[in-house]
Each structure stands twice: as C-alpha cells, then as structure tokens.
Amino acid sequence: MSATQGGEYMSEKSALSRREFFQTSAVAGAGLAAGGANATSRLGPSSNPRAHPKSLKVYMVTDMEGVHGIFNWEDQCQPFKSPRWAESQKLLTGEVNAAVEGLCAGGATEVIVADLHNASRSLSTETMDTRAQLLQGKGIPVTLGLDSSYSALIFIGQHPMAGAKDGVISHSYAFEIQNMWVNNQIIGEIGVRTMLAGYFGVPVIMLAGDAAACKELQQLVPNAECAAVKTGFSRTGGISLSDQAAYSLISEKARRAVEQLPDFKPYKVSGPAELKVEFTVQGMRVYREREGVERVDDRIYVYRGKDLVDAWLKWSDFF
C-alpha cells in the first residue's frame, strides 16, 4: 500500500528463521525471467491428481514494500520520485510474472493483477505476462472488484503491519495509523483483505513478501503457501534473495497453492463488525471526525456496521 500511509502489530506464529531463510536462498533454482510480455510457462501443467474447476480465477493483490531487494521507502517506493523507482517497478514486475507462471502451471485459467501500491502506478501491461489482466487506475470499486467469481486470492510484494518484529517498511494503510482492530483482533492490510476475500467466499492461499508478512498471514491461514523473499533485521534493513532465486521461489509457491486449493477455506468474519482505528499524534493533525463515529479517546475511533464491509466503508475503501 502507499507508504504515505502505518500500524502496530506483532505476531507469534513461527516463520522462517534466518537460517531457514539462507537455506531457502541456497536451494532456490535459477529460474524465472523478471519481465517480458511474452513469458511462457516453464513449469509445465499441474501434476496434481485432484481436479480443479474448469474456470479457476485468481485475484492477485500487489504492493511494493514487500518485494525482494526493497528496504527504503524514500529511495525505492515513491512513484516517479524515488531515484530507484524504475528498478523497483522491474523487481515487482518480475515477481508478478513469476506468480502468474506458477498459478497457470498449477491450474489457474484467469489471473487478475491488482496494482494497489500508491495510487496504482507501479505496473504496465507492456511488461506483464500475457496470461494476466491488469486492474489499475482511479475509480477502482471500493471492495477492489472482488466477488464470488474468484477461486482464490494471493498477495505479491506484501509488507507487514507497522510494529511487526523485524518487518521491512511495515505499515497499515497509512504511516499515520498506529493500530487497527476488527472485532478486537489486531490487523493490517493482510488481515483486512483476507477478511474481505472471505466475505465473498474467496480463500487466501499464498503470499510473497518478507518473513514478517508471511508470519502475519499464517496467523490467519496456517496452511497458506508463503515465499519469504527477504528477512528484516529492522524496519529499514535486512537480507534479500537474488532476482532469480526470488522468482523461482514465488513461482513454485504459487503453483503449489493452486494445486492445494481444495484444502483452503475462506476466512470469514460473521455478524456485526466493529473497526477500531488508533491514529498517531501526527495522524490526528490530518484526520477529520465524521458524524456517527464514536471517539474513544484522543486518538482512537470506532466504526460499527452490520458486517465487515459495512463497518469498514464507514472509515475508508479497501484500497
């Protein structure tokens, strides 16, 4: 998500240790090219004996801060302002194309790639795998165009919540946000979009990002396939896989996730929902109160609705 936008989160579920991370880096194959509109599958058709539906449509959430090799928001993540922005676009495109390759090899028949980083300006149809379609620009539906026609959702380039232990460029929608909760469960973008997908009956099956983001998703979906393409020592530093190792790992995890689709269930939030948002001191300088919203204290506001979507839309859209 836009890094002009933050949260606090620490999850306890096991993720890759640094030793496991290095082992993953060592065994990851020299696989997949980063870009190229004419990319074709190198993995071959799925060997999974379990039959998939004739139509298997996957929604891909993309962001920038979780991409391998990216550790500095100012230098790498501001569209057309960061000195390394063009490089960052190339890295993200490589991860997207690797994921498309794996998804299709696993049995996906349609892939919609949503460009959701910083005003939707990161990806181009010129360099995207021809088997995917790009969702981009202003006026994207408030629920991101998700509906029950999708068979699965995956995350590519995803960052963890702000405050996640060793989370690289961690934040939750805005750097001006300290914490967010849905029904008293602390969440970030991963959690919210996993819940949104579940609202439409769509399971989340895979994520590519740093080790902290992988841990965050597996708190909600323990059997999710995760490609930890980097591991953080801090919010602004860590160790990353190389291009080819990252692409190979992502493609393999995406393929496995689709092949195991029958094992996944949507993450659902039932009944009335309550969204609680805690802003930073700086965030309070720009936040404007809305009618019907409960103010708990100087920096915490509560939004309630008949369900998750109703409550969330009283605060913002899901972009």
Task: Please describe what this structure looks like.
With 319 residues, the protein is an alpha/beta fold. It has a domain at 18-36 and 53-166 and 188-267: Rossmann fold (3-Layer(aba) Sandwich), CATH 3.40.50.10780. Helices cover 26% and strands 20% of the residues. The chain is built from 8 helices and 12 strands. The strands form 2 sheets. The protein has a 7-stranded mixed beta sheet, sandwiched between helices. α3 packs parallel to α6 (243-259). The radius of gyration is 18 Å and the shape is globular. The protein starts with 17 loop residues before the first helix and ends in a 6-residue tail after the last helix. 51% of the residues are buried. Mean pLDDT is 85; it is low at 2-42.
Rg on CA atoms, Å: 18 Å
The CATH fourth-level homologous superfamily of the domain at 18-36 and 53-166 and 188-267: Dipeptide transport protein
Report the end-to-end length measured between terminal Cα atoms. 8 Å
State the CATH class of the domain at 18-36 and 53-166 and 188-267.
Alpha Beta
Q: Give the tally of β-strands.
A: 12
- In CATH, the topology of the domain at 18-36 and 53-166 and 188-267 is named Rossmann fold
- Helicity level, as a percent range? 25-40%
Q: What integer is the average pLDDT?
A: 85
Q: List the uncertain runs.
A: 2-42
Largest sheet: 7 strands, mixed
User: Number of DSSP helices?
Assistant: 8
SSE pattern, N- to C-terminal: HEHHEEEEEHEHEEHEHEEH
